[in-house]
Amino acid sequence: MNYPSGIKKSYNKVISYGNRGMTLEEDINVTNEYYLTHNIASIYKKPTPIGIVKVDYKSGTIKEAYFKTPSTTDYNGIYKGKYIDFEAKETMVNSFPLANIHEHQIKHLDTISKMGGIGFLIVRFVKLEETYILTNDKLQSFLKNNTRKSIPLEYFKKEGFKLELKFNPRLNYINIIDRILEGELHE
After folding, report:
1. Has residue 9 been placed in a domain?
2. Cβ atoms of residues 122 and 90 within 8 Å
3. Is residue 6 part of a domain?
4. In the chain, alpha helices (H)
5. Are 110 and 162 in contact (CB under 8 A)?
6. How far apart are CA 60 and CA 113, in angstroms?
7. Using alpha carbons only, what angle is made at residue 93 by residues 107 and 121, rounded to the nearest 5 degrees?
8. Distance (Å, whole) CA 20 – CA 135
9. Residue partners of 134: CB distance under 8 A and separation at least 6
10. Which of 45, 66, 134, 173 is the most buried (most CB within 10 A)?
11. Rounded CA separation 123/107 (Å)
12. CATH code at 82?
């Protein structure tokens, strides 16, 4: 670029707009906000229940706290009259380590499904910039039929559903829920 004073500047920096630095949680929160403002679904991040021990009332700061009970899953809400409940996880490797999800969360997702709700995992493979939904029935099937300590990426590709990052909604997982509700997929 030529400026009037004769100074020449050039920029050769390549900018990647892939994930734009957003985490899975941020992507889901933005998506849920879109769903709510467009009257599509009402789905929220669940707060982790904590017990407060010490508070500095002058600054309004919690100084000491503890987790009251283990949290169930990250998100829940309602869509087309159906209860939705899911856990969101990121992994830096090309498999999903089962150590990343607790036994009580797996049982919770199964309970949700048995009671007629829709339970699932959303897993992002960070290095690949790929995100998948794995329905509860596919999760339970893997756990029942495998002794592995992780779910391979190939299982997600075969049995899960890839979610593409878009502008709005950012991570449209409702289209998969629609397919479950239409009976096209088993939850």
Report:
1. no
2. no
3. no
4. 24-37, 103-114, 136-145, 153-159, 174-181
5. no
6. 41
7. 30
8. 27
9. 120, 121, 123, 151, 155, 156, 159, 160
10. 173
11. 18
12. 3.40.1350.10
Mean pLDDT for back-to-back runs of 10 residues, the chain (187 residues): 52 42 86 97 82 78 69 89 95 95 93 95 96 96 95 97 93 93 67
d(CA 83, CA 25): 20
pLDDT value, residue 21: 46
- Structure-block tokens of residue 186: 């088993």
Question: CA-to-CA distance for 129 and 7, rounded, in angstroms?
Answer: 40
Total number of domains constituting the chain = 1
**Distance between CA atoms of 172 and 34, rounded to whole angstroms?**
10
Domain range for residue 104? 24-46+72-181
- Give yes or no for a contact between 163 and 131, defined as CB atoms under 8 angstroms apart: yes
Residue 61 lies in a domain: no
Going by C-alpha positions, the residue among 3, 10, 87 that lies closest to residue 43 is 87
